[in-house]
Amino acid sequence: MDHTSILIVDTGPIWELVLYRAVNQLHFESLRRKLTYLVSPEAYQNCGNYVSSFRQRTTSASVVAELNNHIAKTEKKGYRQFWTIVRDEFERMGMDEQVVRLLDLDLELLIRFGPIDVSLLEMARRAVNRPVILTLDTKLDAECKRAQVGSEMLSQVCFGTR
Predict the structure, then answer these.
(1) What is the pTM of this model?
(2) For the chain, how many structural domains are there in total?
(3) Which has the closest alpha carbon to 123: 132, 110, 135?
C-alpha cells in the first residue's frame, strides 16, 4: 500500500468495527449475528492493518449521522457504550471528518446514490493524494470504479482476497 494515500471510510466498515467491539468486548452477544465480515480476530486484525497502512483516514459528517441511525436501533441501555466505541475507534484511527455541503453534490449522483455515498465520492474527487474508499456497498464500489476512484470492499480486506 502506498502510505501517501488517503482512506475515506464509509459507514458500513465503521459499523462493523463497532459491532465487533460491542460483541467481543462488551459481550452484546445478541449482536453477533449482525456481524458480516469482522467475524474473527484475524479479520479484525486484517482490517486494522489495512486501515493503519494509510497516512490519512477520513469520513464525512453524514457517515456519523448514519452511525447514529444504527446505534438508535440497538438496545437503549447500550447507547452510551456504542458512542464510546465510535469515539474510541475514531481516535484510534486518527479519523478526520469532513462536511460536504448538499449544494456541492452532483444532482444526478445524489438521486442515484443518496447524500452519504455522494459525499464520499465528492471527498475523493477533492483529494490530492490518491484516495481509496473503504465500503461494504457494491453499488458505491462500482461507481468508484466507473469514476476511476480507488475503492476496496471490506470483505476483501478482512478475508485477505485483495
Answers:
(1) 0.92
(2) 1
(3) 132
